[in-house]
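FIELD: query
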Amino acid sequence: MSEIRTIIQIKGPFNKLINHDFGYTIQDISSSDSLIDADLVFIDLSDIAVPIEAFYDQRYQDQIDEEYRIKSKQVEAHLKSGKSIVAFVTGQAETYSVDEDEDGQVYMRINKVPLLPEGHQLTKLSNSGINIEPCSEVVEVALNKLDRPRLFKYEYTLRKNEVDIPLLKIRNSNEIVAGIKFFDKGRIYYLPKINDSLLESDQVEQMILADSIISFTKNLSRSLGRDVSETVPEWVEEIQILEEADIRKSIQEVESEILTLEYKLRNYNERLRVLTQFKSILSSTGDQLESAIEAIFTYLGLTISRGAEKNRVDFIISRNDKYIVCEVKGVRGTAQESFATQLEKWSSEFYDTQKTIPQGLLIVATHIQVPPNERNQIDFPDQMMRYVKMKDQACMTTLSLLEILKRYHAGDWSSQYIFDLLYDSIGLIEI
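FIELD: result
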């Protein structure tokens, strides 16, 4: 499969990604005159038969718009050019429907034209709590790369003779829930419906989800190693000559190893991204600093929530009906007393609304342009510290927060210990 730059979605799931650039763009079919520029197409299977209005009056039959028939031809041309379609199995599309008035008189008939060139029949599953298994080791490794728990919702099965390569099936049965269908030089990936809870997530989560689906199809395309431009009858495929069996087995083993290594590399890169974000609290300010500290507190197992309004309290950490109101700042020099007075204001507002006295915690990234080993100036002025102690607040640098993170990761400190430390301390917390 070639590099994915443009994806056209026909009633697909990723509505929050339309017309945003993530290294690729997803366009809605309504905003595209043609599929010719699409590297990949997403389709909702229940909507791939699209409506064409035909009124009961015969005079209007000749005026049926050909737009959707043209789209079906474009889909066929897309596949013939060697590109792929991801069809999410969300249901069986009706081919027509009829509207009647109160007297039973038909006033409009909706004819629907299938967009996929290959027919398909689905069987509705009566039990949603089924166990699914990959149909091969290659599929299992590629599926693991998705790294998304409960990604799919299994509601329908495909007829076995309608897929060329089964991907997923119900355990201990031959019922297929995902598979690949070859059409000319292209492929149709029939994948189960994506769980609604994942599709309701924010744009970033949808982007990660779309990336996973794209990677899944690309890895399968490469690993299955079939050039559909050179297809031969199935009975020829079953005949193996010379060392062909050993070669096929070796290819599968090597490709499986590649997928496993790529999966590990992806996890390492993701972990490295997280660690880099953690380290950024030493030199960042504003939203970047707040997001990094939020990520650290979450990693520490603390329950954290953002302030309800912008330009108000940054974070609220809670545990067992105890609350810590956090103010976060990043500065080039030392902390300022105004940071503590602002924190006191947020603490007072919290008490006014919640009738609970919170702990006030000030976290400051000081001297953000100087490496830690070269910082020789104080972080918190004496006058500021007198105010902090007078108001029973606690304060700490982001460097100390990193030390807390290290001790948690080493297993020396627990989430409860860290919360108690932050909640009970008065004055400077220095680790």
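FIELD: remark
The chain has a mean pLDDT of 78.
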